[in-house]
Amino acid sequence: MSSSLRSKKRGNTIIWALMALLVLGLGGFGARNFGGSVQSIGTVGDREIDLRDYARALQREMQAASAQVGTPLSFEQAQALGIDRAVQAQVIATAALDDEAARIGLSAGDAQVRRQLTAIPAFHGPDGTFDRDAYALALKQEGFGEREFETKIRDEAARTLLQGAVLGAAAAPEAFVARLAAWATETRDFTVAELIASDLTAPVGTPDEAALKAYYEANPKTFTSPEIRNITYVWLSPESVADRVALDEEALRKSYDERIAEFVTPERRLVERLVFPTDAEAEAAKRRLDAGEASFEDLASERGLTLADIDMGEMSKEALGPAGEAVFALTEPGVVGPLPSDLGPTLYSMNGILEAQETSFEDARDDLAAEATADQARRLIAEEADGIEDLLASGATLEEVAAEKGMELGSVAFSDGTEEGIAAYAAFRDAAKAAKAEDFPELAQLDDGGVFALRLDSIAAPALQPLDAVRAEAIAAWQREETQRRLVALGEEIRAKVEAGTPLASSGLVTTRFADFARGGFIADTPAEVANEAFSLPEGGAAVVATPGRVHLVSVTAVHAADAAGEEVVAMREVIETQVGQSLAADMFQLFAQGIEARAGIRLNPAAINAVHAQMN
Q: Which of 91, 135, 266, 551 has its CA 20 to 30 A from that of 47?
């Protein structure tokens, strides 16, 4: 149950969640509303898992998830995302570390506890220093006693020492980092040529009868017709009854007035919103932004978000609420904030101004008329539907129904690839695939308000078409395959000469040379396999790269190792060293936590856990 620790590399645990609640003034949701004598959700070894700690941690993670998605999450949604299970794993791991620290006699002294206490801003008075009254009031509001809270700080200090001892032992192997950095920063010189049909000494031509027959027999799937379902249908569409619709000019104008917001839009702004846990963090982010130390995208990335995650789209001044005045005061793209919001302190990035727009009734009339016609046509079809169903139920044939109700009567040779006419509707295709010969036609709805009924007349099973019926297709397919085969053979001949010392550029082919090409680079209008192959070959090596319908030759002329002391390699080494070190540390710590959990033993109280969950609803 310690898997959540893999993503918790910075080692923050329950006490910091409690401190964050104090600093943010979130009010200790669920922390004081549990009756009865049960005060824990379980134990790890001799250490109890405080019920209130679980409640606070769960609320904090739900609030963080809400900030990411931009809307408050219900507890049911949080459960669907696995937040409750992740928090349980977190508090279990914390209790296991506490139990292990106690077992080995690891503890923090009073001086350390005092330093941490006096550093918490929520306990400071107006002069910015620790205030005993502010301390007592904050703890009272959160439902803590001083001894209890100080014990938690002491436990956290011991946990930090234990975690540091485990994580500090992890380091990325120097040889591995150096080799990987060298591999990633290596560049190559290579030449590429594409072989085309005109490079062959003679055109492929037309296959003789024996070759064509052999190809036809070797590729039966290519020349097998699909299952054909011969279907008769009746169809009543909105278009077919549109001439029976009478438009009311007054009704059109009323519709325009009722939907005026669609035709008269206020000035809007393109806005992105980034929420922070505290005012201090938001203000620090804004300072970095103003100083040019980070972009808005950088700030979002640091919070595990992309610009798409925080994009609010087109917003009116009213829709932005309290932030509207500040955002609309901008006359060009920029960032304002921190400003208050339902989710916390927020920075708003305004990226564009959309002027107010107005569409007059006269300009909107045609669209309104088309919508009104379609709507009334759907109503007429709905009124006709009962009569059509009655006729079908009485045993009338589709032909009789079409004649009596003025429906379109048609037929279609239907297969999986048929999408013309009525077969463009998914509902018709589904019904056609499911139809059986013994079925009676039933009326069904289309997504545009139309209705239809169908009858399966016969099924033609998949069948290999005679060669004479597909001769042209077979010849074209043979020519494509034969051209590809001959080009590959020609490429292999040239490759052998290149590897023997003849430059690819002297082959007579049209060639393109690439110098200092970086690993993972892109060549326009060329399959990615070509560049990938260039980085799999040794210096002086060549290869034929065949992809569907295309053949390339690639020849590597030089492999350049990056300067080990160069800025790029040094930067790459730092990135790799950090990532590999963090990964090793996370793996080591996860294994360590799993080991101490298994040794201590975990016992959970489902009733207590459910009591916390009930408070979250």
A: 135
Q: How far apart are CA 49 and CA 88, in angstroms?
A: 10
Gyration radius of the chain over CA positions: 36
Contact 512, 521 (CB under 8 A): no
pLDDT at 224: 94
Helix ranges (H only) for 119-227 are 132-142, 146-167, 174-185, 209-218
CB 346 within 8 A of CB 274: yes
Written as six digits, the tokens of 375 are: 């709507």
Q: pLDDT averaged over the chain? A: 86
**498 phi and psi angles, rounded to 5 deg:** -65, -45
Number of domains in the chain: 4
Strand order in the sheet with 602-604: 47-50, 40-44, 602-604
Q: Which of 63, 174, 35 is nearest to 616 (CA)?
A: 63
Q: List b or e across 328-348, with b for residues whose CB sees 16 or more CB atoms inside 10 angstroms.
A: beeeeeebbbbbebebbbbbb
Q: Is the dihedral of CA 589, 590, 591, 596 positive or negative?
A: positive
Q: Per the domain annotation, does 255 fall within a domain?
A: no
Estimate the crossing angle of helix 174-185 against helix 567-600, to 10 degrees: 130
Whether the link from the prior residue into 527 is cis, omega within 30° of 0, is no
CB neighbourhood size of 177 (10 A)? 21
Domain around 292: 267-355
DSSP string over 467-492: GGGGHHHHHHHHHHHHHHHHHHHHHH
First to last CA, the chain: 25
CA distance 520 to 315: 40
- CB neighbour list of residue 436: distance below 8 Å, 6 or more residues apart: 456
**Residue 473 token pair:** 């297709």
Q: What angle do CA 170, 175, 181 make, to 5 degrees?
A: 100
Which portions of the chain are predicted below pLDDT 70? 1-38, 248, 617
Provide, rounded to the nearest whole percent, the portion of the chain with pLDDT above 90.
39
The verdict on 8 and 129 lying in the same domain is yes
247 bridge partner residues = none
Question: In sequence order, what E strands does 237-306 have?
Answer: 264-265, 268-275
Residue with tokens 């793996």: 587
399, part of any domain? yes
pTM for this predicted structure: 0.51
- For residue 175, being part of any structural domain is answered with no
The long-range contacts involving 488-491, CB below 8 angstroms and separated by at least 24 positions, are 488/544, 488/546, 488/551, 490/195, 490/199, 490/200, 491/195, 491/544, 491/546, 491/551, 491/552, 491/553
**The tokens 């727009």 sit on which residue?**
357
**Cα dihedral angle (500, 501, 507, 509), rounded to 10 degrees?**
100
pLDDT in tens, 83-117: 999 999 989 988 888 888 888 888 888 888 888 88
